[in-house]
Amino acid sequence: MAYTYDSENIFAKILRGEIPNKTVLETEHTLAFLDIQPQAPTHILVIPKGPYVCFDHFAQEASEPEITDYVRAIGEICKAEGLEENGFRLIANAGREGVQDVPHLHVHILAGRVLGPMLARAK
Ligand code: AMP
C-alpha cells in the first residue's frame, strides 16, 4: 500500500514549530512531548521527525538510524520516567479501525495508574 502523508496534520505543525508543545525529549530523529489531553498521570507521545503516517509505514520505509533512534528514545523516556518499576502501556493506533486521530506516527506512553483492560469490552 502507498502511504499518503498530510503535511498539515497537527504533529507536522508541532515539528515545524507552528504549534507549541511540552517537550520531554528531542533527539536527531525523534520528538517526545506531553499529550494535551492526558489519559493517565504520565501520558507522553513519541513521534519520528520524518513524514510517516503510522507504525507500519515507519516499519516498512524508515531508515535504520531513524528506527534505532525512535526505539532508543522510547527506552530513554521509560528510564527517565522510572517506568520499569510499576509498568506502563505503549499504544500505537493506526488508521480507521485503529481509531488514529492524528495521521503522523505516534506511540502513546501511558503510566502512573492501573490502566485496566487493554480494550473496552463490548457488552
Ligand atoms: P490518536 O487518537 O492515537 O491519533 O491520538 C492523538 C493524540 O494526540 C490524542 O491523545 C490527543 O490528545 C493528542 N493531541 C492532539 N493535539 C495535540 C497537541 N497539540 N499537543 C499534544 N497532544 C495532542
If you had to describe this structure to a student in words, what would you say it looks like?
It is globular and about 35 Å long. It has one domain (10-111): HIT-like (HIT family, subunit A, 2-Layer Sandwich). Strands 1-2-3-5-4 form a five-stranded antiparallel beta sheet, covered by helices on one side. The protein is of the alpha+beta class. The protein has helices at 10-15, 55-61, 64-80, and strands at 23-26, 30-34, 42-48, 89-91, 107-111. Bound molecules: adenosine monophosphate. Adenosine monophosphate (AMP) binds next to loops.
CATH topology: HIT family, subunit A
The rough form would be described as: globular
Q: Let me know the CATH homologous superfamily.
A: HIT-like
Terminal residue distance: 34 Å
Q: Helix- and strand-based class?
A: alpha+beta
**Could you give the order of strands across the largest sheet?**
1-2-3-5-4
Stretches where pLDDT is under 50 for at least 5 consecutive residues are none
Largest sheet at a glance? 5 strands, antiparallel
